Predict the structure.
Amino acid sequence: MSPGIVLAVLIVALGAQLTRLIVPARGNYVVALVCAAVGLLGAELVAFGGHGGPSLGTIHPIADAVGITLAEVVGLVLAAPRRLGRR
């Protein structure tokens, strides 16, 4: 397995875990993992276009952190009304 893939998986797991630590009452861990994976993939697509900042091997940590953060925020906003019982 490529070291870049292993590092990407670790970044996704770290992003999901940080979301659960910062906002434990919103969403569940699966939603956090999916949002982190989507954020990482989106950030890497942007980075391949030349806007990702410095790279660390095959990944771009700054772009990945921004992408994961944006995806987690959107996921929490979209999942929160259903979790709290609002319609």
